Amino acid sequence: MRFKVVLVSLILLAFFIGAVSAADITNYNSPIGFERDPMTFVNGDFEMEMDSYNAFIDYDDHFKSEDDRQVEIINDTYAKYFDSDDKKAGALEIIKVDGDQYIVDSSFSGDDKSKSEDCLKYLEEFNQLNKFKPIKIDKAS
């Protein structure tokens, strides 16, 4: 009986470790000039991160404009944004990896709106290096 408990515990542990590591952007190739930080890619004031995506929870937070956050959807797959409260510009996409959906956020810390174009280029480079194709934002679940 004790052996079964230990075996089941080890299987569950392996599953949870795999689930956590799957969402780590540093498992993939970074755009040129970016360095791996523990959970992100960093290049000066630019940063890229990747988190699990759930449309029911995350859509309004990331892809809808508000008073302090302007969002522009591009080709139904990317979103450029500028957040005046957080002083942050960036670009977002949703990708699917092994059946799970992730939001990839490329951002710039500062109040320069034009930096969202650079962030969009970094997302495209990230996709090319890792052979990812963003999914349509309105098709994400």
How does this model look, in words?
With 141 residues, this protein is an alpha+beta fold. The protein contains three helices and seven strands; from the N terminus they run αβββαββββα. Helices cover 33% and strands 31% of the residues. It has a seven-stranded antiparallel sheet with strand order 1-2-3-7-6-5-4, with helices on one face. β6 and β7 form a beta hairpin. The radius of gyration is 17 Å and the shape is globular. The termini are far apart.
Q: Indicate the overall shape.
A: globular
Number of helices: 3
Q: Into which percentage range does the β-strand content fall?
A: 25-35%
Strand arrangement across the biggest beta sheet: 1-2-3-7-6-5-4
Share of residues in helices = 25-40%
Give the termini separation: 41 Å
Cα radius of gyration in angstroms:
17 Å
H/E element string? HEEEHEEEEH
Structural class: alpha+beta
Low-confidence runs of at least 5 consecutive residues: 12-21
Features:
141 residues; alpha+beta; seven-stranded antiparallel beta sheet
Question: In terms of topology, how is this protein built?
Answer:
Layout: H1 2-22, E1 35-36, E2 41-43, E3 46-52, H2 55-63, E4 69-74, E5 78-83, E6 88-97, E7 100-109, H3 115-130
Brief summary:
This protein has 141 residues and is an alpha+beta fold.
